[in-house]
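Today's session is about reading a structure prediction critically. Students often jump straight to the picture, but the first step is always the sequence itself: look for stretches that repeat, for charged clusters, for runs of hydrophobic residues. Only then move on to the predicted structure, which in these notes is written as discrete structure tokens rather than atom positions. Here is the chain we will use throughout the hour.
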Amino acid sequence: MTFEERHRPKAVQDLVFADPTVAATIMRYATARPSKPLLLYGEPGTGKSEALRLIVEAQFAQAGIASDDFTVNGADAGKGLFDKILNMAQMQMWAPGLPALIIIDEIDEVEDALPGKTRTFIEQHKSVQLLASTNYVKKLKPALQSRMRCVEVQRPLNTDWVPRAQAILAAEGARVTQSGVAQLLQNFSGDARDFIDYMEEQVQAAKQFASAASAQPRSVASILNQASGGTP
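Below is the predicted structure for this chain, in token form.
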């Protein structure tokens, strides 16, 4: 199993957000069924698509039904897009009264290609709940925004990533102090898509150094602590 496979978020609790109220909203959509479709917006790399994926996976797991990838991308928007969404929805085996869940990434591109169609779909198909993301919320008309729960997802600060980074390091056998982890993250860009790669680089570099220093064997944790300015 690769480093990414071991540490990719597996539940909404593994996600990192700058705003606790955003985390609470994501958790609510993962554990309950709010009536409004959800729209996550914000700059690229804030974890919007990952959050939507985990919401859907959590809902399927709670219902005890088979999950699949029910995602469409706005970049592929064309005349048959909403027929495709309805076909995907019909594949989901929910209890009566529960709508199917469909993710639309880059919903702004759907609006570019099919103006007004998303709003009409929401109004006409209550049996389908859309969970959408966009980097450009201003491209969506107010009439569509008003029909969705719009949540801005801001980029977390490096300090927000410390608990998650510390958990990953511990899982890799490196129990680094909290202050040490904060130091290690000083050069991290804050982009959620780069986080796992960044952590893998830190762990691999420490393991290689530990292997090379065979005359005085040291733990990965001690090397990482020293690299971050802590006690070796």
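Discussion point for the tutorial: Residues 158-227 form one domain.
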